[in-house]
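Reopening this one. Same input as before:
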Amino acid sequence: MLATALVMGFLAAATVTDLRTHKIYNWITYPGIVAGWAGHAAGTLLAAAGWADPETLQALGWVGLADSLAGFLACGAVMLVCFVVFQVGGGDVKLMAMMGAMLGSQRGILAMLWTFVLGACAAMAVLVWRLGPWRLLRLGLRQVLWVVRLARFSPLSAEEQAELRPPLYLAPCGLGAVVIVQFSLAERFL
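Same output, byte for byte:
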């Protein structure tokens, strides 16, 4: 649970800056990545030297240095693709890589996927709040009709494009995702 507290602390700090300034700063993500690697490396050394029981370390959230690096690379690579294709922020890339470094590959990827789900739900709620359900439904139906009739999407005006691009705050979604993954909430309630 030590790793859980650590990752939640870094994510809480990122949540505050993300909500206030819409930025996730390097002074949060880089120390988080290094802390994840250092903690898992220390656990690996303690277990190899016989000074710590691996089961006790796993109860504290230890996944091992190799899994920490794998989580960092897996989550970072997926978010790097999102950075290029979907234009997410660089801070979001480093935030997800930090989650992978702290949680390991399996739980890191699972937390990243939950982050996407929570982020999509939050973005949809913001869209409904901003545009209203009827206007959003009308815009959606217009696109469906264009695709059915002309086999292409209807061109959107610059104003419509701006309205349909809500701000996406991944740090609070990441914090919620870590809570879901680390406390097995999905298995308990779904």
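So the earlier flakiness isn't reproducible anymore. For the record, The chain has a mean pLDDT of 90.
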